[in-house]
Amino acid sequence: MDNGSLVLGNVELKGRFLHLSANSAARATKGTALIKQTLGNLVRAPVTEIRTVEQMMAEEARSGADTSRSSIRPEIAEQEIHEYLDRHYLETLDQPVKMLGDKTPRQAARTAGGRKKVANWLKYLENQTAKQPVGTHPMATYNFEWMWKALGVHDLRR
């Protein structure tokens, strides 16, 4: 959020259906539990759908959505997105990551084998963000170097 508070997902009431959107399975599980705890028997068992960023982008392209006509100046959008990513990845350093054997990146970076896994994970993140259709997209221009340094694996960066 603009005030820096963490958003686990978005909840939207569409007709008779309550939709929870989250950007990770862990957040979806936590959000589902919070909804179940709050609403109890007013909601049924959830139907889960997992979509990759690539799938969502393809859907957006098929729907004809024009995201290039934003009223936000590109440099402001880039700054906002980079600040969001900074906060998101800073939190991620202390959350279990499946690619790291369900260890946090900070935990994994403490061993030689874990350091290699952390380096591979960071390379994966960099490669995924670089795959944006437009090379100047704020996601494609995000710099992960601070994470390499924070985790003490900068020497493994190629």
Q: What composes the largest sheet?
A: 2 strands, antiparallel
**Helix segment tally:** 6
Please bin the fraction of helical residues: 40-55%
Strand order of the largest sheet: 1-2
Number of domains: 2
Question: What would you report as the Rg, rounded to the nearest angstrom?
Answer: 18 Å
Which residues form runs of ≥5 with pLDDT under 50?
none
- Measure the end-to-end span: 34 Å
Strand-residue proportion:
5-15%
Average pLDDT score: 84
Pattern of helices and strands: EEHHHHHH
What is the number of E strands?
2
SSE class: mainly alpha
Summarize this structure as a short list of keywords or feature phrases.
about 160 residues, mainly alpha, 2 domains, two-stranded antiparallel sheet, about 5% strand, globular
Describe the structure.
The chain folds into two domains: 41 residues, no CATH class; 83 residues, no CATH class. Helices cover 46% and strands 6% of the residues. It is globular and about 55 Å long. The mean pLDDT is 84. Strands 1-2 form a two-stranded antiparallel sheet. By secondary structure, it is mainly α.
Topology (SSEs and partners):
Layout: E1 10-14, E2 17-21, H1 25-39, H2 53-62, H3 74-92, H4 105-108, H5 112-130, H6 145-150
Antiparallel strand pairs: 1-2
Short summary of the structure?
With 158 residues, the protein is mainly α.
